[in-house]
Amino acid sequence: MSSDPVIPKSRGLRHRGPVTVAVVSGPTAVGKGTVVGALMRSHPEIVVSRSVTTRPPRPSERDGIDYDFITPDQFDKLIDTGGLLEWATVHNSHRYGTPRGPVEQAVADHRTVVLEIDLQGARQVRETYPQATQIFLAPPSWDELVRRLRGRGTETPKQQSQRLETAKVELANADEFDAVVVNDTVDHAVARLVDLLSL
Ligand code: 5GP
To answer: Binding of ATP: at which residues (predicted)?
Structure first.
Protein backbone atom coordinates (compact mmCIF):
# COMPACT_ATOMS: atom_id res chain seq x y z
CA MET A 1 0.00 0.00 0.00
CA SER A 2 1.40 3.39 -0.89
CA SER A 3 1.17 6.36 1.42
CA ASP A 4 -1.27 8.09 -0.92
CA PRO A 5 -4.63 9.05 0.53
CA VAL A 6 -6.91 6.03 0.73
CA ILE A 7 -10.33 7.16 -0.24
CA PRO A 8 -11.82 4.09 -1.81
CA LYS A 9 -14.89 4.08 -4.01
CA SER A 10 -18.18 2.66 -2.80
CA ARG A 11 -20.77 0.94 -4.93
CA GLY A 12 -23.38 3.59 -4.15
CA LEU A 13 -26.56 3.58 -2.10
CA ARG A 14 -29.20 1.23 -3.42
CA HIS A 15 -32.13 2.85 -1.69
CA ARG A 16 -33.20 5.85 0.33
CA GLY A 17 -35.58 6.00 3.25
CA PRO A 18 -35.66 4.75 6.82
CA VAL A 19 -32.82 2.36 7.55
CA THR A 20 -33.29 -0.44 10.04
CA VAL A 21 -30.07 -2.45 9.94
CA ALA A 22 -26.88 -0.43 9.42
CA VAL A 23 -23.38 -1.85 9.28
CA VAL A 24 -20.39 0.37 10.05
CA SER A 25 -17.12 -1.28 9.13
CA GLY A 26 -13.60 -0.07 8.49
CA PRO A 27 -9.97 -0.66 9.37
CA THR A 28 -8.40 -0.73 12.79
CA ALA A 29 -8.06 2.61 14.62
CA VAL A 30 -10.09 4.50 12.01
CA GLY A 31 -12.35 5.64 14.84
CA LYS A 32 -15.46 3.46 14.39
CA GLY A 33 -16.15 3.36 18.12
CA THR A 34 -15.76 7.12 18.53
CA VAL A 35 -17.97 7.92 15.56
CA VAL A 36 -20.70 5.42 16.49
CA GLY A 37 -20.54 6.65 20.12
CA ALA A 38 -21.06 10.25 18.99
CA LEU A 39 -23.90 9.15 16.69
CA MET A 40 -25.57 7.38 19.61
CA ARG A 41 -25.32 10.49 21.80
CA SER A 42 -26.84 12.72 19.12
CA HIS A 43 -29.51 10.13 18.19
CA PRO A 44 -30.43 8.21 21.35
CA GLU A 45 -33.33 6.55 19.51
CA ILE A 46 -30.95 4.24 17.63
CA VAL A 47 -29.82 0.88 18.97
CA VAL A 48 -26.13 0.03 18.87
CA SER A 49 -25.49 -3.69 18.89
CA ARG A 50 -23.09 -4.84 21.63
CA SER A 51 -20.80 -7.60 20.42
CA VAL A 52 -19.42 -10.55 22.30
CA THR A 53 -15.69 -11.23 22.09
CA THR A 54 -13.08 -13.65 23.36
CA ARG A 55 -10.54 -10.79 23.39
CA PRO A 56 -9.50 -9.68 26.88
CA PRO A 57 -10.68 -6.18 27.86
CA ARG A 58 -8.34 -3.19 27.49
CA PRO A 59 -7.83 -1.20 30.71
CA SER A 60 -10.34 1.43 29.56
CA GLU A 61 -13.03 -1.07 28.61
CA ARG A 62 -15.92 -2.30 30.70
CA ASP A 63 -17.66 -5.65 30.44
CA GLY A 64 -21.27 -5.24 29.36
CA ILE A 65 -20.61 -1.74 27.99
CA ASP A 66 -17.95 -1.93 25.29
CA TYR A 67 -18.36 -5.65 24.71
CA ASP A 68 -19.59 -8.72 26.53
CA PHE A 69 -16.22 -10.33 27.22
CA ILE A 70 -16.75 -14.10 27.16
CA THR A 71 -14.69 -17.31 27.19
CA PRO A 72 -14.03 -19.44 24.09
CA ASP A 73 -16.40 -22.08 25.54
CA GLN A 74 -19.18 -19.54 25.94
CA PHE A 75 -18.53 -18.36 22.37
CA ASP A 76 -18.76 -21.97 21.08
CA LYS A 77 -22.06 -22.40 22.90
CA LEU A 78 -23.48 -19.23 21.30
CA ILE A 79 -22.52 -20.53 17.85
CA ASP A 80 -24.03 -23.97 18.56
CA THR A 81 -27.32 -22.53 19.75
CA GLY A 82 -27.66 -20.15 16.79
CA GLY A 83 -27.31 -17.17 19.11
CA LEU A 84 -25.05 -15.20 16.77
CA LEU A 85 -26.20 -13.33 13.70
CA GLU A 86 -22.62 -13.34 12.44
CA TRP A 87 -19.18 -13.96 13.84
CA ALA A 88 -15.56 -13.88 12.74
CA THR A 89 -12.00 -14.41 13.88
CA VAL A 90 -10.48 -10.96 13.49
CA HIS A 91 -6.78 -10.08 13.06
CA ASN A 92 -6.05 -13.83 13.16
CA SER A 93 -6.53 -13.81 16.89
CA HIS A 94 -9.79 -13.41 18.78
CA ARG A 95 -13.39 -14.11 17.89
CA TYR A 96 -16.10 -11.45 17.77
CA GLY A 97 -19.82 -11.90 17.17
CA THR A 98 -23.16 -10.10 17.04
CA PRO A 99 -25.87 -11.51 19.33
CA ARG A 100 -28.92 -12.23 17.19
CA GLY A 101 -31.72 -11.41 19.64
CA PRO A 102 -31.23 -7.64 20.11
CA VAL A 103 -30.91 -7.06 16.35
CA GLU A 104 -34.09 -9.00 15.61
CA GLN A 105 -35.89 -7.12 18.38
CA ALA A 106 -34.79 -3.73 16.98
CA VAL A 107 -35.93 -4.73 13.49
CA ALA A 108 -39.30 -5.85 14.89
CA ASP A 109 -39.58 -2.47 16.66
CA HIS A 110 -38.66 -0.59 13.43
CA ARG A 111 -35.68 0.97 15.16
CA THR A 112 -32.37 1.64 13.43
CA VAL A 113 -29.77 -0.79 14.76
CA VAL A 114 -26.08 -0.16 14.09
CA LEU A 115 -23.58 -3.01 13.91
CA GLU A 116 -19.92 -2.05 14.20
CA ILE A 117 -18.25 -5.12 12.74
CA ASP A 118 -15.42 -6.24 10.48
CA LEU A 119 -15.45 -7.04 6.77
CA GLN A 120 -16.14 -10.76 7.25
CA GLY A 121 -19.11 -9.95 9.48
CA ALA A 122 -20.41 -7.34 7.02
CA ARG A 123 -20.42 -10.02 4.31
CA GLN A 124 -22.48 -12.36 6.49
CA VAL A 125 -24.99 -9.62 7.34
CA ARG A 126 -25.35 -8.93 3.61
CA GLU A 127 -26.79 -12.45 3.32
CA THR A 128 -29.14 -12.18 6.31
CA TYR A 129 -30.25 -8.59 5.79
CA PRO A 130 -29.72 -7.71 2.11
CA GLN A 131 -31.62 -4.47 2.70
CA ALA A 132 -29.09 -3.31 5.33
CA THR A 133 -27.15 -0.14 4.60
CA GLN A 134 -23.44 -0.93 4.74
CA ILE A 135 -21.03 1.91 5.39
CA PHE A 136 -17.26 1.80 5.26
CA LEU A 137 -15.42 4.27 7.45
CA ALA A 138 -12.09 5.19 5.83
CA PRO A 139 -9.10 7.14 7.13
CA PRO A 140 -8.09 10.37 5.38
CA SER A 141 -4.82 8.66 4.43
CA TRP A 142 -2.81 5.52 5.12
CA ASP A 143 -0.24 7.52 7.12
CA GLU A 144 -2.99 8.95 9.29
CA LEU A 145 -4.31 5.47 10.00
CA VAL A 146 -0.87 4.29 11.09
CA ARG A 147 -0.52 7.40 13.25
CA ARG A 148 -3.88 6.79 14.96
CA LEU A 149 -3.07 3.14 15.63
CA ARG A 150 0.39 3.89 17.08
CA GLY A 151 -0.97 6.89 18.96
CA ARG A 152 -3.57 4.97 20.93
CA GLY A 153 -0.88 2.59 22.14
CA THR A 154 -3.20 -0.27 23.09
CA GLU A 155 -1.44 -2.91 20.98
CA THR A 156 2.09 -4.28 20.90
CA PRO A 157 4.17 -3.55 17.77
CA LYS A 158 3.48 -7.13 16.58
CA GLN A 159 -0.27 -6.69 17.06
CA GLN A 160 -0.10 -3.33 15.28
CA SER A 161 1.54 -4.98 12.24
CA GLN A 162 -1.14 -7.67 12.22
CA ARG A 163 -3.88 -5.04 12.38
CA LEU A 164 -2.31 -3.06 9.53
CA GLU A 165 -2.19 -6.20 7.39
CA THR A 166 -5.92 -6.69 8.01
CA ALA A 167 -6.47 -2.99 7.23
CA LYS A 168 -4.94 -3.40 3.77
CA VAL A 169 -7.41 -6.20 2.98
CA GLU A 170 -10.33 -4.17 4.33
CA LEU A 171 -9.41 -1.03 2.36
CA ALA A 172 -9.00 -3.10 -0.80
CA ASN A 173 -12.58 -4.35 -0.40
CA ALA A 174 -14.30 -1.08 0.49
CA ASP A 175 -16.08 -1.08 -2.86
CA GLU A 176 -18.39 -3.81 -1.52
CA PHE A 177 -20.01 -1.20 0.70
CA ASP A 178 -22.91 1.10 -0.13
CA ALA A 179 -21.03 4.22 0.94
CA VAL A 180 -17.57 5.27 2.07
CA VAL A 181 -17.34 7.92 4.78
CA VAL A 182 -13.95 9.50 5.40
CA ASN A 183 -13.37 10.03 9.11
CA ASP A 184 -11.49 13.31 8.82
CA THR A 185 -13.35 14.80 11.76
CA VAL A 186 -15.86 13.05 14.01
CA ASP A 187 -18.49 15.77 13.44
CA HIS A 188 -18.18 15.41 9.69
CA ALA A 189 -18.36 11.61 9.79
CA VAL A 190 -21.41 11.68 12.10
CA ALA A 191 -23.17 14.18 9.81
CA ARG A 192 -22.59 11.87 6.85
CA LEU A 193 -23.93 8.87 8.78
CA VAL A 194 -27.02 10.82 9.85
CA ASP A 195 -27.66 11.62 6.22
CA LEU A 196 -27.00 8.09 4.92
CA LEU A 197 -29.21 6.51 7.58
CA SER A 198 -31.96 9.13 7.18
CA LEU A 199 -31.93 9.80 10.95
P1 5GP B 1 -11.19 -4.29 18.60
O2 5GP B 1 -10.40 -5.45 19.11
O3 5GP B 1 -10.31 -3.16 18.15
O4 5GP B 1 -12.27 -3.84 19.57
O5 5GP B 1 -11.98 -4.77 17.31
C6 5GP B 1 -11.31 -5.42 16.30
C7 5GP B 1 -12.21 -5.59 15.10
O8 5GP B 1 -13.31 -6.44 15.39
C9 5GP B 1 -12.83 -4.29 14.59
O10 5GP B 1 -12.66 -4.26 13.17
C11 5GP B 1 -14.29 -4.43 14.92
O12 5GP B 1 -15.11 -3.75 14.01
C13 5GP B 1 -14.47 -5.91 14.82
N14 5GP B 1 -15.65 -6.37 15.54
C15 5GP B 1 -16.14 -5.92 16.71
N16 5GP B 1 -17.26 -6.56 17.05
C17 5GP B 1 -17.51 -7.44 16.03
C18 5GP B 1 -18.55 -8.38 15.78
O19 5GP B 1 -19.49 -8.57 16.55
N20 5GP B 1 -18.44 -9.11 14.64
C21 5GP B 1 -17.41 -8.95 13.75
N22 5GP B 1 -17.43 -9.70 12.67
N23 5GP B 1 -16.43 -8.06 13.96
C24 5GP B 1 -16.48 -7.32 15.08
So the answer is: 26-33
Q: Could you tell me if the CB of 170 is within 6 A of ligand 1?
A: no
For residues 76 and 71, give the distance between their C-alpha atoms in angstroms, rounded to a whole number: 9
Q: Which atom of ligand 1 is nearest to the CA of 170?
A: 10
If you measure from the C-alpha of residue 118 to the centroid of ligand 1, how many angstroms do you get, rounded to a whole number? 5
Q: Which CATH number fits domain 21-196: 3.40.50.300, 3.10.25.10, 2.40.30.160, 3.90.226.10?
A: 3.40.50.300
Task: Please choose, from the candidates 53, 49, 51, 155, the residue with its C-alpha nearest in 3D space to the C-alpha of residue 95.
Answer: 53
Dihedral sign for Cα atoms in the order 142, 158, 59, 169:
positive
Is the pLDDT confidence value at 111 over 90? yes
